[in-house]
Amino acid sequence: MSVAVVLCVLLVVAACRSTAEPKSPLADDSDAAVSKAVDAITTFPTQLDPRIWDGLTMKPDVRDAILHVVDRVIGETGIDGLTVDTVDLFGSNASYEYDDKSDVGVHVFVHAPGMTDDELTPYMHLLNDQVERRQEGRIRFYGLPLELSFHAGRSANYQPRPGIGQYSVTDGHWVIEPMKQPDNFDRNHMKVDAKKFIGEYNDLVRQYLAGKKGFDCTRFNAFDREMGDYRNQGFQQGLGSRSTQNLTYRALRRLNVEIPEMADELEDECTFANDSVG
């Protein structure tokens, strides 16, 4: 199948998102709720998640299932010659920082003959959008949701970093074994910062709900970027994954509302509402 035809198919599938409006409750900003989220995200396990690991070895049925899903999705794209270079696991479930909200974050690095990585990247963006909307949360390994992302080539963000877990599902071994990270967080500081973001989010939602038509939808994206920039500060300062900033961001996903995700949903809802007539 030609790349042009594949692009058309992916565009159609990506456009077929749910028309149901997301719920838009306010986030609980009580001291009890914020303390509970902060305490939970700063209590770390001492072993890898036993649901998918046997010590430091990925359970064979989990590894086989991941590779099966990757092969299926690659086959369904119809892109001639699309080839998997490697399948890697990154993130909290390749570390000692997972919790009940964690997923199995699998990243698939691919190439296609006759196309540069830059040329292939837009197609991978569309493929990721399709995969997310079609199967996110619906494939589970012992209760853990699979999150699957495809990449044309390997950017700097996915290069091996000392102490940050990276597991080759393709080869069945660690590229970098995870290390227990140093504690570079302050719970009181986290609570203050979390309340600041909760307040901004709640104010934004109230203003949006007071008048959806004509609302500046880009404000949700700006808020999302603000949270992302804040999260990255800890990494830029060399504080690792247990920085105040990274853990505060993760705590914002463990309230009664998953704030980063809801900001994205409300931006979509706002855009569609303002594109509508009548």
Describe the protein's architecture and organization:
- The chain is of the alpha+beta class.
- The protein has two domains: 131 residues; 89 residues, no CATH class.
- Helix content is 46%, strand content 14%.
- It is built from eight helices and eight strands.
- About 3% of the residues have low confidence.
Q: Report the end-to-end length measured between terminal Cα atoms.
A: 40 Å
Which stretches are low in confidence, meaning pLDDT under 50 for 5 or more residues running? 11-19
Number of DSSP-assigned strands: 8
Strand proportion: 5-15%
* Major sheet characteristics: 6 strands, mixed
SS field, number of helical segments = 8
Total domain units: 2
Helix content: 40-55%
What is the arithmetic mean of pLDDT?
90
- SSE string, helix = H, strand = E? HHEEHEEHEEEEHHHH
Keywords: Signal
Signal peptide: 1-20
Chart the SSEs and their pairings:
Blueprint: H1 3-15, H2 31-41, E1 53-54, E2 57-58, H3 60-77, E3 83-90, E4 104-111, H4 117-135, E5 140-141, E6 144-152, E7 166-168, E8 173-176, H5 187-210, H6 218-236, H7 244-251, H8 259-275
Parallel strand pairs: 4-6
Antiparallel strand pairs: 1-2, 3-4, 3-7, 5-6, 7-8
Keywords: Signal
Signal peptide: 1-20
Summarize the entry for a quick read.
The chain is α+β, with helices and mostly antiparallel strands and 278 residues long. It is 46% helix and 14% strand. A hairpin with a 4-residue loop joins strand 7 (166-168) and strand 8.
